[in-house]
């Protein structure tokens, strides 16, 4: 009997692509289909000899023992309809992962609205640096690792735990499948307006997650997040660990340098300073959450700090593409008002008096919904100039009208690049924020600025 065959629909998404890498490493025969085949995931899959089919035409769908259906696919997809009509076996990615990869593992899960990818990468790197060959799946490209997912050889698995739904046939949050031993909840805000109508629905999903955790498990939360506290009040069966910036807490941090590139941690009375390449208060929160998570696996504060001092970050998470005296170019994944605000605060604290030019794409369903427009307006206060990208001219005109800083609409990427190069002052900091590729703005700006 040959190897079990898996075909993944939506394989080029960061999560489903990660599952493909894990399945291949575990000995399964893996193929996949997608309509959006592009780097870096296409390159990762190709490097592991995983064949990817362009599109979902029925004639191109190979025979498989099970079909994993990504949550981007719905009932009107021709491949999905073929699988259902033919009575072929199928599963969601999270359910398959839980049954075939996570079973018997000690799972460390990172959840929350912001910072999941970075915190998951930090935890994985700390454990790796301390000699543990852990498994992990990260919805991004961690710069300290060659791949976004791997099996590892021991019983520890670190996973980015998303509250988005599992599949069109399983509307529960992905993380409900994971049964973590250690859970980090970074923060909690309204997001995913396409599947949740308000924050209470998201809080209910987190409550359901907490109900799956054993009494031996631990939950790590920031002390002052009131929405997480409301979830905790709904029911808690695990030990609770809190942290923050308040020095009266058992676990806190404080900046040594204003941009948080140097931080002092205090963990239950033990103190340690850290200098690293990252910056921004939000990354200090991510770091302390990571330190507390690995402490449950007996990794000391000193060893955690040593690892984080060599943490290289994650692609497109406050990634400095070019840094010169003449200009700085940064690419970031921020696509929510809070993330935009925290990112710009970090940039402002790091680059002080320099002019900050921000390009922001209104791409996610939540951003386009208009529900966060008032917070979006406030989120850009630390920029000097903002360029808004998106198709809803009415929404963008309103943002421009009420903006606290100079704002413009991006009518074309080419013109935006040309104007930026032409109007650039010495020392300017240019930052792009989007959860998509923003019309290749980053690549085009990088090329244009390097040759200016």
UniProtKB/TrEMBL annotation:
Domain Mur ligase N-terminal catalytic intervals: 5-100
Gene3D superfamilies: Mur ligase, C-terminal domain (3.90.190.20), Mur-like, catalytic domain (3.40.1190.10), NAD(P)-binding Rossmann-like Domain (3.40.50.720)
GO molecular function: acid-amino acid ligase activity; ATP binding
InterPro entries reported for this sequence: Mpl (IPR005757), Mur-like_cat_sf (IPR036565), Mur_ligase_C (IPR004101), Mur_ligase_C_dom_sf (IPR036615), Mur_ligase_cen (IPR013221), Mur_ligase_N (IPR000713), MurCDEF_pg_biosynth (IPR050061)
One Pfam family hit: Mur_ligase_C
Gene Ontology biological process terms, A to Z: cell wall organization; peptidoglycan biosynthetic process
Domain Mur ligase C-terminal, chain residue ranges per copy: 316-436
Mur ligase central domain boundaries: 110-293
Keywords: ATP-binding, Ligase, Nucleotide-binding
Protein name, as recorded: Mur ligase central domain-containing protein
Organism: marine metagenome
């Amino acid at each position: 009997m040959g190897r079990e065959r898996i075909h993944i629909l939506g394989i080029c998404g960061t999560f489903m692509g990660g599952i493909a890498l894990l399945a291949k490493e575990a000995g399964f025969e893996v193929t996949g289909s997608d309509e959006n085949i592009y780097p870096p995931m296409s390159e990762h899959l190709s490097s592991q000899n995983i064949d990817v089919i362009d599109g979902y035409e029925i004639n191109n769908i190979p025979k498989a023992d099970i079909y994993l259906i990504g949550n981007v696919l719905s009932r009107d997809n021709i491949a999905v309809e073929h699988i259902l009509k033919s009575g072929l076996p199928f599963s969601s990615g999270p359910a398959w992962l839980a049954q075939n990869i996570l079973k018997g593992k000690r799972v460390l899960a990172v959840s929350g609205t912001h910072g999941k990818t970075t915190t998951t990468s930090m935890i994985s790197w700390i454990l790796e640096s301390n000699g543990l060959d852990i498994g992990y799946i990260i919805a991004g490209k961690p710069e300290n690792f060659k791949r976004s997912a791997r099996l590892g050889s021991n019983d520890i698995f670190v996973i980015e735990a998303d509250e988005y739904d599992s599949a069109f046939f399983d509307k529960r949050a992905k993380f409900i499948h994971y049964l973590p031993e250690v859970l980090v909840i970074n923060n909690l805000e309204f997001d995913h307006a396409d599947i949740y109508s308000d924050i209470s629905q998201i809080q209910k999903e987190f409550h359901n997650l907490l109900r799956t955790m054993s009494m031996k498990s631990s939950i790590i939360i920031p002390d002052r997040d009131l929405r997480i506290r409301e979830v905790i009040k709904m029911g808690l069966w695990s030990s609770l660990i809190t942290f923050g910036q308040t020095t009266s807490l058992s676990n806190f941090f404080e900046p040594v340098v204003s941009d948080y590139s140097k931080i002092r941690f205090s963990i239950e009375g033990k103190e340690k300073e850290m200098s690293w390449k990252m910056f921004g208060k939000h990354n200090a929160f991510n770091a302390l959450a990571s330190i507390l998570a690995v402490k449950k696996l007996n990794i000391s504060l000193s060893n955690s700090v040593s690892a984080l001092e060599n943490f290289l970050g994650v692609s497109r998470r406050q990634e400095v593409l070019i840094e010169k005296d003449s200009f700085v170019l940064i690419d970031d994944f921020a696509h929510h008002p809070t993330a935009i605000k925290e990112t710009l605060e970090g940039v402002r604290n790091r680059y002080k008096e320099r002019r900050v030019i921000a390009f922001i794409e209104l791409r996610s369903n939540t951003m386009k919904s208009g529900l966060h427009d008032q917070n979006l307006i406030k989120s850009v206060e630390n920029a000097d100039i903002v360029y808004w990208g998106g198709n809803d001219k009415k929404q963008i005109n309103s943002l421009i009208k009420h903006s606290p800083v100079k704002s413009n609409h991006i009518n074309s990427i080419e013109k935006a690049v040309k104007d930026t190069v032409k109007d650039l002052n010495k020392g300017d900091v240019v930052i792009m924020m989007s959860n998509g590729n923003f019309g290749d703005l980053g690549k085009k700006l990088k090329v244009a600025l390097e040759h200016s």
